[in-house]
Amino acid sequence: MDEAIKYVCGENFHRRLWLPVSATHDRLRVTYSTTSNFSDDSLPAILFCGPMFGSRWFAILIDHLAATTGVRVICVDRPGMGGSTPVPLNIRIDVWLETVPAFLSALGVQHVSLLSHSAGTMYAFNTIYQLRDILDPRRPYLAIIAPWVHNEHSHVTLLTLASKIPAGLFSSWNGIVRLVQTRVAPTASWSGGILSSAANLFRAETGTIHSAELSPGDKYGVSEEVGECIDKLQLNWLLAESTTAGNDEALLCLKKAGANWGVCEDYEDYVRRLAEQERRLKHEGTANLKIDTFFAASDVMIGQGGQQYFERCWREGEVADAIDFGSTILPETDHDSALADLKKGALKQVFERIARHDQ
Description:
It contains 14 helices and 10 strands. The chain has helices spanning 2-8, 58-69, 92-107, 120-130, 151-154, 157-162, 173-184, 216-220, 224-240, 245-254, 267-283, 303-315, 337-340, 347-356; strands at 15-19, 28-34, 45-49, 72-76, 81-82, 113-118, 141-147, 242-243, 289-298, 323-334. The strands form 2 sheets. The protein has an 8-stranded mixed sheet, sandwiched between helices. Strands 5-8 form a two-stranded antiparallel sheet.
């Protein structure tokens, strides 16, 4: 237990900074984490735009993988998650865009590759458009795992029904997820305590996806006993902190209660605008932006309709001269395991591509 506690309490997993008062918000605390190898500035850096309940705790799950593949990663508690100060729904993305330069400056990082999952898609899209200079001009890269698509385009029954729920009822969403996580769903089905999207509540294929995950010991590079303790500790401590971000993130995903997606309110329009920006940068000598998208084999959150719409936005948008877009389907994965299953999901190949500089 002592070894597990020492692992989970690593200083790098529990960083913080303060954003000063602005015209739209008071002084804000932001908690974030880095993988334990972050001081090695010879390694490429990755900024992770996490899912609905994604948080700085995700760095614990990927720490060993990052070390063995040769990358370093930043994970952030968005407002209302962990120790990050909650903010009004209508400025969530603006606050994110204010936060990114702040922690990159604090860490002494000039360029990153971007990685997103699920609800993090909208944050990543705003980042590459509004903060384009944080990407390496020689190898600008974004990896999108199980992208989020609004139900207007996916036509997924689950989300269509959810969109009809009054916005006020979402104030208890994080409590429902906590209940399922602690009382209903086995820990293994949540991939080591990493809370991602609502898919786990409605998974039709329960018990068929996660059975071949890496063991706790292999995930963390420790003994099985210590690995199991790390799993339990990170889940318990994550849930001991605030998870109210999930309420606002759910509203954001559904575009309810005045939520907006910033520059990517309409994906088709966004792709055209991004391509125009990339063409201008290309004339200045910047390499083509590369975007790799990884779809789950079975995704109850966006379905086949959402995948087809997402791919169509990029493939029919006449962007190939400025943006290299590719997509892959990950066998035997769902919306969550496409990220959190370190054996079948996309993370290992994404990390290896970035480490090899062939992204």
